[in-house]
Amino acid sequence: MPIIKVEKLVKRFGNITAVDDISFEVEEGTIFGFLGPNGAGKTTTINILCTLLAPSSGRASIAGHDCMEEASGVRRAIGIVFQDTTLDKDLTAYENLIFHAYLYDVPRSEMKKRVADVLRFVDLYDRKDDLVKKFSGGMKRRLEVARGLIHQPRVLFLDEPTLGLDPQSRSNLWEFITKLPEMHNVTIFMTTHYMEEAEVCNTIAIIDNGKIIAMGTPDELKKTIGGDVVYMTTTDNATAKSEIKSLFNIDASEKQNELYMTCSRGDTCIPEIIRTLGDKVISVRLQRPTLNDVFLKLTGKTIRQEDVSGEDTIRESIRAYRRRH
Ligand SMILES: Nc1ncnc2c1ncn2[C@@H]1O[C@H](COP(=O)(O)OP(=O)(O)OP(=O)(O)O)[C@@H](O)[C@H]1O
Ligand SMILES: [Mg+2]
């Protein structure tokens, strides 16, 4: 039985349809990722699943509890790391966690051990008596993950867990997140708009304008692109091209003195081509399709494009300001 079940979920805010008829299921013990640009409807979906928001229509359930009718059952089954940090900065790391343990009715006899265990898990045990306001962004995020685990939830929601972190803190946090399903027996539901982060998910749903436009494993999604692209420079492109066509039935094209072709499996096709062409080959490179290619194919835009167009708008406003002054 799936641990999260969503059927025909819709959420409207006035005339904005933030979540537009989405349905999906999440298997227990997996990492499920919602990948989409700003405003796609990721946080709104999480808020509905976490019982913080009522949907306009449709149903959702977690661990068999209906998100509308059995809110307290759902709340006991979930932990959440919000997009914006919600720690108490004037308390120590340890106090933040103990406070949370009280809220969730963790038995007194187990409280200290559980807090110590999760602090060790996120590598913050040595800093447990420091005030949170002295923590770096990455440490705060790790502490929030620890807090989300104290009451031993079956599902942990992570909304943009690495937003605003530097690359090193991001990869550091990912190390902990990927260990969660196995070590804490928890299912992860995460959102992100970083492609590389979505790669760790067992299943990804790509969401845009409130709709799920594709869903599958990262590999399945990338396969929809139709294979890998192999680039090759040779001593004699015309001959190489006709040999590749006659022996492998692959149509190579030429751009800036380089041959390129799509192969269903680039890693097996490259050695065969090299064996055949021998000394004619000067260099080879393989380009695997990325999730961004998938998003581009489905929507005609890249996930970051909106950020870029945002920058253009900012630059244009600056120029207009300078003209006026
Ligand atoms: N409380 C609200 N009232 C009105 N509109 C809202 C509200 N919450 C969200 N929206 C709108 O719903 C849409 C989806 O927002 P949501 O926060 O779910 O996006 P998101 O995918 O989480 O984006 P981000 O990547 O920026 O966090 C947006 O157009 C947003 O402006
Ligand atoms: Mg959001």
Summarize the structure.
This protein has about 325 residues and is an alpha/beta fold.
Description:
- The chain is an alpha/beta fold.
- It folds into three domains: 4-217, 3-Layer(aba) Sandwich (Rossmann fold), CATH 3.40.50.300; 227-287, ACT domain (Alpha-Beta Plaits, 2-Layer Sandwich); 291-324, no CATH class.
- The protein has helices at residues 42-49, 71-77, 93-103, 108-121, 137-149, 167-184, 195-198, 218-223, 237-248, 266-277, 291-299, 305-324; strands at 4-13, 16-26, 31-35, 57-62, 65-66, 78-81, 155-159, 187-192, 203-208, 211-216, 228-234, 253-255, 258-263, 281-287.
- The N and C termini lie far apart (64 Å).
- Bound molecules: adenosine-5'-triphosphate (ATP) and magnesium ion.
- The site of magnesium ion has 5 residues, from helix 1.
Radius of gyration: 24 Å
> In percent, how much strand structure appears in the residues?
25-35%
**What is the ordering of alpha helices and beta strands?**
EEEHEEHEHHHEHEHEEHEHEEHEHH
How would you state the average pLDDT, rounded? Answer: 89
Count of helix runs: 12
CATH topology of the largest domain: Rossmann fold
Q: What general form does the structure show?
A: elongated
Secondary structure: number of strands: 14
What hetero molecules are bound to the protein chains?
adenosine-5'-triphosphate, magnesium ion
Strand order of the largest sheet: 6-7-8-3-9-10
Taking the alpha carbons of the first and last residues, their distance comes to: 64 Å
Q: Helix coverage percent of residues?
A: 40-55%
State the secondary-structure class. alpha/beta
Report the biggest beta sheet as strand number plus sense, adding barrel if it closes: 6 strands, mixed
Q: Which architecture of the largest domain per CATH? A: 3-Layer(aba) Sandwich
At the fourth level of CATH, the homologous superfamily of the largest domain is P-loop containing nucleotide triphosphate hydrolases
Which CATH class of the largest domain applies here? Alpha Beta
> What's the number of structural domains?
3
